[in-house]
Write the structure tokens for this entry.
Amino acid sequence: MNWGAEIAKAVLAAVGMFTFLAIVAAMFGVLLERKIGGWIQSRLGPKHVGPQGVLQTLADTLKLLQKENVTPRAADALIFNTAPLVVATAGLMGWLVIPFGKIGETVLVVRDLNIGILFFAAMASMTVIGILAGGWASNNKYSLLGALRSASQMISYELPMGMALVAVAMEAGTLSTVGIVRAQDGWMGSFVFRQFPAFVIFMIAAVAEVNRIPFDLPEAESELVAGYISEYSGMRFSLFMLGEYAEMFAMAAMTTTLFLGGWKGPLLPPLVWFFLKMYLVVFFMMWVRWTFPRFRLDQLLNLSWKVLLPAGLIWILISGYRITF
């Protein structure tokens, strides 16, 4: 193995991925969400910074970069400053196993791991470590409450998400994300039809995993100031936002890979098909965010433990019976 070439490839992939997620996923995602939110609520959204407000997010980014990074006097400075990096890194790492498309016979994926969806689930689980660390290290009761809410929520919804991943892996016969896409035969052969209950479970759990309304209890501005990010400002605050948007887009990309046939589709190039499907899922997540009210904590946990988890287990049994017989 040529270690120099491998390290150079890894560095270039990391730089390209971070640039894509920071600019396209985070900055464009925020603008898209504001425009969609304005459309759903019958208002205009950003209009004044640049043509039709397209530079509003750039202006907000420059504002955040100029703000002072304040560390509370009683906070654990090392953990407090490290937590945003953990969340942002976890959001970025999930993209390593996402196949974007094909050029000829070459699949555009950083690493086609034979345990791809297991790696993705592990990286999604890392986010809760950064959130817990940030909330605890802030030495603020509201931050700590938000972090504890996040831990209970994310651990609860990782289980039904895992059930959905198991059902898809059984259907495809592989844990590789590239293998799962290849197992789906065109649009009508997508797993969204053969694994529709798993698709519903995965989508609900994905929205909960990225802490978005109606599952935004870890932040819950009306009750907890701003939850686990109450004490964060400037670039460290934006790193939390980058991690959230990177994970939201990663969940949309994984939904496309698992259930919507990935890059497969007629007429258009594979890369175009992948991003069309991914942004359709992102639009759905934003639509949900601006449509439904927040759940209470007991409702949120009941939905996971009493509805989604039993449904996932039953669907695994049904899928196993159908695949076997």
Q: What stands out?
A: The mean pLDDT is 83. Strands lie at 102-103, 106-107. The chain has one domain: 3-324.
